[in-house]
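Q&A log
Question type: sequence-to-structure
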Amino acid sequence: MQRWQGPEDVPDDWGSSVVTLGVFDGVHRGHQQIIARARQAASELRLPLVVVTFDPHPDEVVRPGSHPPFLCTTRRRAELLAGLGADAVCVIKFTYDFSQLGPEEFVRTVLVDRLHAARVVVGEDYVFGHKAAGDVALLAELGEKYDFTVEGLPLVTEDGVRISSTEIRARLAEGDVAGAAHDLGRPHRVEGVVVRGHQRGRALGFPTANLETLPHAAIPADGIYAGWLYELDPADGSEMQKWPAAISVGTNPTFDGRERTVEAYALDRDDLDLYGAHVGVDFALRLRPTVRFASVDELVAQMRVDVDQARTLTGTD
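Response status: OK
Response body:
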């Protein structure tokens, strides 16, 4: 898969293509349906599929300070899109100047001049251009002018609720990581670099990887979770490592902590040295809320129960 940082990176000899575009934060099941249809159209037309996405989130540029928690990093988004069949991902830097493009100028800049779109596939609620002035109907009109066709697909709903990035963020904020995983089509992942914490877990017999998470990451509600810990970029160049894990999100109230942290204990492993490593934590199920225990002994006893539950839920008991 090719990855371009804006239309200017598209090769000069790039021919016609099928294009789908959107923020695609989380690449959830609704997004997957759009990309699957675009992939099908590309196969029918024997053209490459280009997915256009944006970074940072447009809300942060249009309404500074309103950046929603992101469901995946830009890199992860590109990896997921490649896995769905994208031949190229074009990540457009969403700036104030870009936000001022009118609908027709947006179409020329993004779809026509470099990508030579032959067909454009989007969700039926897609909007574009300055102040979201363009919709699917206008996109189709501009397609007639610039010689591309447009498909606006119905949105994916279940029990009358639309699957959306906003809905998934709300589930995570409630600790419903299982519901979020259902809508995403995979467990929600939080990434970060492992840093040194207070090392209380090691002293208690449960050494944890303490993540320094990225700004604006969508971190689930405080609690204890079952899931998996990944070393995403092993320093020795080996394959990505994966371990079943018990995960803690919160401030460690038993120790009067104030800083909110994400920590993962790789089950039954006390030999891992992950300091400085780029890791990911996948959340499978919430085991319980965060609790302030009366003593360290009570905390340790509960941690043993948590680990046993995590072992069962990850299929490692």
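Response note: Residues 17 and 117 are 5 Å apart (CA to CA).
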